[in-house]
Amino acid sequence: MPISTQHPEPGIAVVTVDAPPVNALTVRGWFDLADEVTAAGRDPATHVVVLRAEGRGFNAGVDIKEIQRDGGFDALIGANHGCAAAFSAVYDCAVPVIAAVQGFCLGGGIGLVGNADVVVAADDATFGLPEVDRGALGAATHLARLVPQHLMRALFYTASTIDAHQLHHHGSVYAVVPREELDETALTLARQIAAKDTRVIRAAKQAINGIDVQPVHRSYRFEQGFTFELNLAGVSDGARQAFLEKGA
């Protein structure tokens, strides 16, 4: 199963993405991730969720091969709706979500991490949006939650990456540790949250979301509208195919 949930300790749910080779998720994978995170938060026994991944990197975004295999727009529309569902599930989860990031965190990975409550990262973690190189737009909403506005614009326009230490400097990554310590670091933080009165923590999650200055659901859907325009113009298809041929 590409998405699974374990309960290693009382009060802690660990949702793991394991979709080799690079954790690029299919349409079904994005919806399954949304379902797992939502279900974990709805369980009264869950006090905190850790979102992690197996493999070389945390997440490489959508499965471009799936989109290119589709002769129409069903896979593209599905990926957009699936990403929106997964990002929303993290943001709207009834309990805090800790993202534990290793290796690459790209595209949709930024959407997940940007909507998480706390981010811990391995010292090899890098973050970025290659969207403009793929003929698409999206997740600038979430990158803007990780870095200041003008840096977000520079990273977005150039499709550049930023490392975990830089994000720690900006305060959006809580801790940077060696990769072998990543899971235990996330669990240590999760234990601290899980030990609190879950009624208070659940209320706090609602309160913090309620005073958020960024309307993450609306702004992300606004971005997606431009992706649809680029696809209708034929720009995105050519960029995706060039990416696949380059990697072949």
TrEMBL record:
GO molecular function terms noted in the UniProt entry: lyase activity
Alphabetical GO biological process terms: fatty acid beta-oxidation
Annotated InterPro entries: ClpP/crotonase-like_dom_sf, Enoyl-CoA_hydra/iso
Record keywords, A-Z: Lipid metabolism, Lyase
Family: Belongs to the enoyl-CoA hydratase/isomerase family.
Protein name: Enoyl-CoA hydratase family protein
Organism of provenance: Amycolatopsis acidiphila
Source taxonomy: Bacteria, Bacillati, Actinomycetota, Actinomycetes, Pseudonocardiales
